[in-house]
Amino acid sequence: MAQHHSLSTRAIHADHEFLGPSAAVAPDISLTTTFRQVQGLDESSSHPSNPVADIYARETRPVVTRVEKVLESVIGGPTALFPSGIAAAFTILLHVRPDTVAISQGYHGVHQAIRIYRKTRGESNVALIALDDEYPQGNTLAWLETPLNPTGECRSIEHYARRAHEAGGQLCVDSTFGPPPIQDPFKWGADIIMHSASKYFGGHSDALLGTVSVRTPEEWYSLWDLRTYTGSCVGSLETWLLLRSVKTLVLRVPAQCETATKLAAWLASISRVKGSPSAEEGTTGFIEDVWHASLQDGADRFVGAGKQMSIGSACFSFSMTSEKYAEHIGHNLSLFTPAASLGAVESLIEQRILADPKADPRMVRVSIGLESFEDLKADLVAGFAKVKAMKV
Ligand SMILES: *Cc1c(COP(=O)(O)O)cnc(C)c1O
């Protein structure tokens, strides 16, 4: 489908040219593992990115082919689907086979995937360095997560792409917190883009998925080969849920980000560190500090029209003035659910220490859904009063 169409149009129609003359408008879930054989089929004329006929579901299945066409158009490069974000991350490591991995902070599970990759190569054969260390010449993979979990703050894709390329290496961006349409890492020099599609792409807390996008069909074929022969294949139901959800991605994400930006600004205004003295009665004394791309130092370098992100992410963090508040706030709200994960239509809240034992126990992460700003703000104000009244 022509890339001149808008992102929202492509999210709905990009798979249509690959469909037969009487294809179902609403795609089938299609549970089949195997397909009736076509006699005399010339397999050499068929490519797994666009199979003439499907044979066995680990190799290709129509619902996966369809969603990959849509994702390719929406993300901007050939895309392979995986059964989780971590499966996607691990396959990137197998695909690049880096001798050096440069990474700092970010999602803990990715660090565990790197640990296992190093084990498969022999630990001493794969150097692990910080993102801002000097990169040795050679096959270095710089792994940049931006915006960053859990604060939602940005780091420059352009900067790390230049550094990786100068050393002859590659830059992978974990863009989970900045899905389309708010961030396009390819535009700033990324070689590989990863998403945990369990978050915004799936968008409804009901499908565990991951994506890897690359620049060329040859690289896609390498990802397909690794997926097929490590058996890292996606179920039909999850894929079908993704195909349904990606159609509304372009509506959901900016709305969630807009509400999150307003909430971050409001929380900053009542915080001890960034606050204003004129904050409303009953709202002060709860929030210590707030982090969000729109509040970070040099925010205008990152967020706004034509910048790396059109708007700050829908997931961000704040710290409360006491551990007690941070521990109990999530269980004293009615619209936020205390739970791990992010990116879905419903707002979630989590005391960070439950996910990261090294986190400040006063720190709280929120993922903003599609409820209204006024409702979420009122829910938090009511929650503040409840945790203040608690005797623990
Ligand atoms: C959730 C997440 C992952 C891992 O994805 P799963 O789908 O849970 O395997 C990786 N990176 C980031 C930034 C995430 O938020």
Jot down its keywords.
alpha/beta, Aspartate Aminotransferase, domain 2, Aspartate Aminotransferase, domain 1, seven-stranded mixed beta sheet, five-stranded mixed beta sheet, 33% helix, globular
Walk me through what this model shows:
The protein folds into 2 domains: 7-248, Aspartate Aminotransferase, domain 2; 249-389, Aspartate Aminotransferase, domain 1 (Alpha-Beta Complex). β4 (140-145), α5 and β5 form a beta-alpha-beta unit. It contains 11 helices and 12 strands. It has a 7-stranded mixed β-sheet, with helices on both faces. By secondary structure, the chain is α/β, with parallel strands linked by helices. It binds pyridoxal-5'-phosphate.
What is the end-to-end distance?
Answer: 59 Å
Tally of separate domains: 2
Q: Report the total helices.
A: 11
Which stretches are poorly predicted, pLDDT < 50 over at least 5 residues?
none
What general outline do the C-alpha atoms trace? globular
* The CATH homology group name of the largest domain: Type I PLP-dependent aspartate aminotransferase-like (Major domain)
User: What would the average pLDDT be, to the nearest integer?
Assistant: 95
Major pleated sheet: 7 strands, mixed
Radius of gyration: 22 Å
Order of helices and strands: HHEHEHEEHEEEHHHEHEHEEEH
Instruction: Report the CATH architecture of the largest domain.
Output: 3-Layer(aba) Sandwich
Query: What amount of the residues lies in strands?
Result: 5-15%
